[in-house]
Amino acid sequence: MKLYNTLSRAVEEFVPQEAGKVKMYTCGPTVYNFAHIGNLRTYLMEDVLEKYLRYAGYDVMRVMNITDIGHLSDDADSGEDKMLLGAKREHKTVRELAAFYTDAFFADCALLNIKRPDAVQPATGCVDDFIRVIEALMEKGYAYKAGGNVYFDTSKVAQYHKFFNFKEEDLEVGVREGVDEDENKRNKNDFVLWFTKSKFEDQALKWDSPWGVGYPGWHIECSCIAMKYLGEYVDIHCGGIDNVFPHHTNEIAQSEAYLGHTWCKHWFHVLHLNTAGGKMSKSSGGFLTMKKLIEDGYSPMEYRFFCLQSHYRNALVFSADSFENAANAYRKLKSRVLAIASEGEVQSDAFERCKKAFCEAMDADLNTSLAVTCVYDVVKAKDINGATKRALLEDFDRVLSLDLLKEEACAPSEEGMRAEEIEALIAERVAAKKAKNYAEADRIRNQLAEAGITLIDTPTGTTYKRT
Ligand code: AMP
Ligand code: ZN
Fold first, then answer.
1. DSSP class of residue 114?
2. Which ligand 1 atom is nearest residue 283's CA?
3. Do 349 and 269 reside in the same domain of the chain?
């Protein structure tokens, strides 16, 4: 498979360290608010990548962190702590806030058919690992203490800027808007590994460390969580394009300093979803969520289709018109697919021919829009029978996950459990959980799972989908 690698700035053959196995790392969300549909575009395209790697026969292990520790806007300890602000806004503790928005994030993912990574690790669960790695960096001479904080010394690595396109003058500390110079830093790109001196006196989450009571810097969690679950090498590291600098640059610097060798060879970045007014961003407010799209009468699959129609390396502009067009196209396509009768025997030649076209599209740097064209080609084909068409669409959906062949999710079905029965069991499970009878709650979840019903816990209650 050929994929663009941000490190080499070229489309190249993707070759994992160990034949047949892929170790994949994804920067997870910062859980102080709902994910906006831009964030979800990134996770959705990463989901397609993961599913295609599996489809192509790789054994994939995918890991994601959850940033549930205070997240400052920059390394100079200026800006605001988004978790703390969120907790105040919603009259919750920081931990309650994180739990609420973590559940909300995975509920959105489930609605969009985004598979949960094999391992999901909140940063607060790994502080001992961070301390161990920071201590090792101190011992090796890559980190120093200044003004109560511990900094990574970027002058100690042979090549700090590993990514393209870097313009030193753009990043002068003190020149960027809103960034104060941190006088403790020896070099302007040095970054904090551990804070004990913060301008936030009421920092909610603090831990003991060899350098005093404090909390970790912004970047260390991803390096440590990746190493904890994936070992010394990552095959492919994913994130949104804004992660390239400083987050991924700093992840590479500290990981390679710690390990003493190259850490990750392939970097996959998804470009942003923009609105006509510019980038959609979580901290600036006024962003669109999945909940809002559903309230406006759209389905999550329509948004998935909208995203798949464009290439992950192009910025995607979201407008009412462009989305409405995609939603209409999805509805039409789905009704045409559902009208295909399963006639005849699967024609293996036609099946292989169409599958080959689909794989060629996906092998060409994950060309999902061309893969969607392959779907249309199958639907329109005059020389393929219904059974073959259905088999192909089912096969492509292992990657695209557009639910084209699925009857409406919540419609009561003849063979399946009726909606009222499901609702009754959900109510029983809620009661069991309230009574702390978790065994009973799990039993009900399993009973429903056996009947093909997946429960989705959201902050506002439990919903379900038929699988
Ligand atoms: P955050 O929760 O802010 O840490 O962001 C979660 C993920 O969404 C990161 O990988 C970001 O790079 C990505 N992201 C942020 N804004 C956008 C956007 N407008 N479009 C696509 N991805 C985004
Ligand atoms: Zn990260």
1. P
2. 3
3. no
* Cβ of 248 less than 6 Å from ligand 1: no
Q: Please provide the DSSP assignment of 152-184 as one string.
A: E-GGGSS-S--SSS--GGGG-TTTSTT----TT
**What letter represents residue 227's amino acid?**
M
Strands of the sheet with 316-318, listed across from one edge: 278-279, 273-275, 316-318
Residue 272 near ligand 1, beta carbon < 6 Å: yes
Domain check: are 13 and 156 in the same one?
yes
309 lines ligand 1 (CB under 6 A): no
Task: Please report the atom of ligand 1 found closest to the CA of residue 42.
Answer: 22
The pLDDT value recorded for residue 177 is 43
pLDDT digits (tens, 9 = 90+) for 120-148: 999 999 999 999 999 999 999 999 999 99
The strand order across the sheet containing 143-146 reads 143-146, 149-152, 191-195, 215-216
Identify the residue whose tokens are 């192009």.
Answer: 314
Q: Is 217 in the pocket of ligand 1 (CB under 6 A)?
A: no
Instruction: Please say which residue of 359, 380, 406 terminates a domain.
Output: 406
Query: Which positions of the chain have pLDDT values less than 50?
Result: 73, 75-77, 172-178, 285, 410-414
In a domain, 11, yes or no: yes
Q: Domain span at residue 444?
A: 419-466
In a domain, 289, yes or no: no
- The closest-lying atom of ligand 1 relative to the alpha carbon of residue 279 is 19
In angstroms, what is the span from residue 110 Cα to ligand 1's centroid? Answer: 18
328 and 390, same domain (yes or no): yes
